Amino acid sequence: MEKVILIKYGELTTKKANRNLFVNTLYKNICDKLKDYEVKISKNRVRMFIKTNEDENIIVNKLQEVFGIHSIVVCYVVNNNIDTIKQSVLEVVSNIKFKTFKVETKRSNKNFEFSSMEFNNIIGSLILKNIDNIRVDVHNPDYILKLEIREDNTYIYTKEIAGLGGYPTKVAGRGLLMLSGGIDSPVAGFLAMKRGIEVECIYFESPPHTSEGAKLKVKNLVKTLCKYQAKIKLHIVYFTKIQEQIYKNIDSSYMITIMRRMMYRISKNVASSNNCLVIINGESVGQVASQTLSSMNVINSVTNFPVLRPVCCLDKLEIIDISKKIGTYDISILPYEDCCTIFLPKHPVINPSLEKAINYEELINYEELINNIKVDTIIIDSNYEEFDF
Ligand code: ATP
Ligand code: MG
User: Contact, 123 vs 147, CB < 8 A?
Assistant: First the structure.
């Protein structure tokens, strides 16, 4: 019996016209993910097959980091001869402990001599005859033996593990993620990647008011996100001058509103010059003063560039839950200051007026500052080593 890891595609099968692009991109992403392992990967329109002598658990864990996979099935492949199937089934089930079971056959090969129901009964009786102290329970079995009878071969499932779902990373084009060191924005980036967006990141720092530690934390967050996208560009913006101008000249209640309007303007420029079609950020409605609907309205009105807010309607606890699952939470809660917190006024305006925001902005020469802003770009992958946390 030959063991194979079978990959069932996610939502992409609904996209008929784009199916080739989706399957080919997923194939490439899986090849990249498994490049350090000895594997043979083949594909067709509905499935991918991986043959390997490596530890199957390691391969499955890696595949669980790839978007576009509905499920990962570890199975044995045999030919469609009835006796071969029977003998192989007995070998498989003799290694599994259970008291109750049922058989589920899927038969896409319509030339196969039995219907799915008939074959469930045949295999069920065979197992009952050969293993003691077990019984069939069709409603709540300990173990479900799944068989898939296809044109070429029969697949005997040993386990089926859920994949991440979503679309393969890169099928949707590029987006620029505003990444702070907080909990929300890495989760927003993960969710954007899940829709197939290739993510680049932009981080605003204000040295010496923000520390090297805060920047390393952001780099470490990017590195963690590299589990889901092999390489990520990080644009680091030196925001100090603008932030100091805001601090000196603008009424403290409007400081955050204006600062965020500046961030949006700069993000839009960086996005355009890097062929990113959208900005992505971690704003969540109502979380802080700058995320009330009226604040979002005044802040966003500096640009008509599309802004995606993947976590905008999630509760904080839901966001935290995702950040724990994707491995960013423990980094996000490290205590380094952010450029927003360092200049945080006591009473930020909750319902800002657009007119006032524009009037305040006239007090600083922001266009020149934005045009001359210094941006450093680095590329991070999962081997990136600049720091030691
Ligand atoms: P997070 O937990 O992601 O830091 P937050 O709840 O602290 O979010 P804000 O500080 O108001 O909220 O920021 C809202 C969003 O603006 C962030 O999720 C992020 O997308 C972006 N942002 C904030 N600060 C920065 C920064 N220094 N660099 C890049 N993006 C930032
Ligand atoms: Mg923040």
Answer: yes
The residue type at 66: V
Residue 157 and residue 193 share a domain: no
Note whether residue 303 is domain-resident.
yes
CA distance readout (Å), 98 to 95, 124, 156, 331: 10, 14, 17, 41
Centre of ligand 1 to C-alpha 178, Å, is 7
Pairing assessment for the beta strands 69-78 and 278-280 based on DSSP bridges: unpaired
CA torsion angle 330 336 342 344 (round to 10): 20
Q: Considering every ligand atom shown, identify the ligand nearest to the alpha carbon of residue 178 and give its number.
A: 1
195, part of any domain: yes
Same domain assignment for residues 104 and 51: yes
Give strand pairing partners of 2.
77
In the listed set 106, 127, 162, which residue is the last one of a domain according to the structure? Answer: 162
Tokens 């704003």: give the residue: 283
Q: Is 264 in the pocket of ligand 1 (CB under 6 A)?
A: no
pLDDT one-digit tens code per residue, 236-282: 999 999 999 999 999 999 999 999 999 999 999 999 999 999 999 99
Whole domain around residue 111: which residue ranges?
Answer: 2-162
Pocket test for ligand 1, best of 176, 178, 322 (most atoms within 8 A of CB): 178
| Cα atoms found within 13 Å of the Cα of residue 237, Cβ hemisphere only | 27
Tell me if 243 CB under 6 Å of ligand 1.
no
CATH number, domain containing residue 15: 3.30.2130.30
Q: Please indicate, yes or no, whether the overall pTM of this predicted structure exceeds 0.70.
A: yes
Has residue 389 got a pLDDT over 80?
no
Do residues 102 and 25 make contact, with C-beta atoms less than 8 angstroms apart?
A: no
Regarding whether 236 and 154 lie in a shared domain, the answer is no
Number of folded domains in the chain? 2
Backbone angles phi, psi at 103, to 5 degrees: -110, 135
Q: Where is 56: in which H helix or E strand?
A: helix 56-63
Closest C-alpha among 184, 149, 168 to residue 75: 149
More confidently predicted of 13 and 223? 223
Tokens 């498994």, residue?
34
* CB-based contact 150:108 (threshold 8 Å): yes
